[in-house]
Design a protein that fits this description.
Mean pLDDT: 82
Radius of gyration: 29 Å
Strand order of the largest sheet: 1-2-3-4
Number of strands: 8
Distance between the termini: 46 Å
Helix content: 40-55%
Number of helices: 16
Largest sheet: 4 strands, antiparallel
Strand content: 5-15%
Structural class: alpha+beta
Shape: elongated
Length: 485
């Protein structure tokens, strides 16, 4: 556990650090959006409200005939703008062009390119892509998957080490909060240990939910959910009875086909009236994607765990032909939706954002503390080394069944989390190369402490053990001198 925690922390630490810092920034995006796009998102309050049809006509006149109507989000409150989204040539994948309309006057308040079915503004999209792929596209997603996959493993290994050490420690409270009297390495170690145990659950949550977005491990998760029928249902828009599927991540990365744009603007008002009658909240209205399919109306505000209903409405008869109520979903589907919304800071609003920000900053601090500890443990007698050595190998002392169990577990984890499997193999190769480069003088047994600045790698021996070790070393020194003479 110690060697795994060490190598993963050193080699994967930069990925976790970048993910944590960009995630902390993403947690602040709702407030940043309100500040940067205040003119687009808000309008003067008015005693009158234009119909959606009139607002759509104003947006059509502004954008021209080249844009196809994609979706409409009516203003949620008096003082907010209506968002009318269009599909247009030249836009990137999952992008649409949004016109922000004053519902009282029909004024065009803004024109932005938004991303995904969540309609992320350019600022949120930029921060999201930084967090997700470093703006490198699909190849860049490898970095975030490495961070998400290894974060949970490093946290579990750290927990195991914490349990072992707190059971042996005399001052157990030092493992729950930093001891201000400690200096140097011991102070860094105290902060690393204390912060790590308090934010353990948050790290595990971000790791598990982050994996569901990943390229390779995320595919395994989706396959498992499909095999167990744990998928998130969606309304069936096929008027001939064909089935439909869903993806709870669609509102984050956008994975739905665009409507044709051939829709009567007046029908949006009729769909909104039906949605209000069915007690749905803040909604998005989409026209049919092709002839013979229904309109869709779905709740887009998911700040509470019970929100997320959807309706399918026949545009000819204006009857609800299918509906999905969040309350009727299976528990796995609810957990998936809750996990996504919590990870994005959507559920519970500001409280969730604050918690995510604190966890992200704590994760970044843990990585920095780990590197400082590595530097503090550098050997005093070897000036050529600027950092400490890895913990000593213990395979020769381990029982065969223990090695077999660890190997089997590693293979299973590697199959489920492919990037973990390959990087773990890389850690082993790096470890073997570094050990072979050491000269016989620098080799030591697993029980010998490392001469370093700060606390040694192994706990200091008890007084009786220290006396015995001193006697043995004295005898070795005397024998060596006699032999030289």
């Amino acid at each position: 556990m110690l060697r795994l925690h060490f190598y993963a922390g050193i080699l994967v630490g930069p990925f976790i650090l970048i993910t944590a810092l960009s995630g902390a920034l993403y947690a602040l995006t709702p407030q940043l959006e309100q500040a940067v796009y205040a003119h687009e998102l808000h309008a003067p309050k008015s005693d009158t409200t234009l119909t959606l049809a009139a607002q759509i006509e104003a947006a059509d006149a502004y954008l021209g005939d080249d844009a196809a109507l994609f979706a409409v989000r009516p203003a949620p409150e008096n003082g907010d703008t209506t968002r009318i989204m269009y599909a247009e040539d030249g836009l990137g994948s999952s992008e649409s062009r949004a016109a922000f309309i004053d519902p009282g006057t029909g004024e065009i308040r803004g024109d932005l390119v938004v991303y995904g079915t969540s309609g992320s503004t350019p600022l949120r999209t930029w921060i999201s892509n930084l967090h997700r792929s470093l703006h490198l596209g699909d190849p860049g997603r490898v970095y975030s998957e490495l961070a998400a996959s290894w974060l949970g493993i490093v946290a579990v290994a750290g927990l195991a080490l914490w349990v072992i050490r707190i059971r042996r420690a005399r001052a157990k409270k030092d493992y729950l909060r930093p001891n201000r009297a400690h200096k140097g390495y011991r102070r860094l170690f105290g902060w690393h240990t204390s912060v790590g145990i308090w934010m353990l659950l948050g790290a595990l949550f971000l790791s598990v939910t982050g994996i569901t977005w990943s390229q390779y491990a995320g595919t395994n998760v989706s396959t498992l959910r499909a095999a167990l029928d744990w998928g998130t249902p969606s309304v069936n828009t096929a008027l001939d009875g064909r089935a439909a599927g869903a993806d709870e991540h669609a509102h984050h990365h956008g994975a739905e086909s665009a409507p044709t744009g051939a829709a009567n603007p007046a029908t949006f008002d009729a769909n909104l009236a039906i949605a209000q009658r069915e007690n749905t909240g803040q909604v998005e209205i989409r026209p049919p994607t092709e002839p013979g399919t229904a309109w869709t109306v779905r709740e887009i505000k998911t700040s509470f765990p019970t929100e997320g209903d959807s309706l399918a409405i026949d545009g000819t008869t204006m009857q609800v032909v299918d509906r999905i109520d969040f309350a009727d979903m299976s528990l796995p589907a609810k957990l998936a939706s809750w996990g996504v919304n919590l990870h994005m800071g959507v559920m519970f609003g500001l409280a969730n954002q604050i918690i995510l920000f604190i966890i992200a900053i704590a994760l970044a601090g843990m990585v920095v503390l780990g590197y400082l500890m590595w530097w503090k443990r550098r050997p005093l007698r070897d000036t050529s080394r600027v950092v400490g050595r890895a913990p000593a190998p213990v395979l020769r002392e381990a029982p065969w069944w223990g090695i077999a169990a660890v190997a089997a577990a590693s293979v299973l984890v590697g199959l489920w989390l492919p990037l973990v499997g390959w990087t773990l193999l890389g850690f082993v190769v790096v470890d073997i190369v570094l050990r072979r480069r050491r000269t016989p003088r620098t080799r030591r047994t697993p029980h010998d402490p490392v001469p370093s600045r700060g606390e040694p790698a192994c706990p200091p021996p008890e007084p009786r053990q220290a006396q015995a070790l001193g006697a043995v070393r004295s005898a070795r020194t005397t024998t060596s001198r006699s032999t030289m003479r």
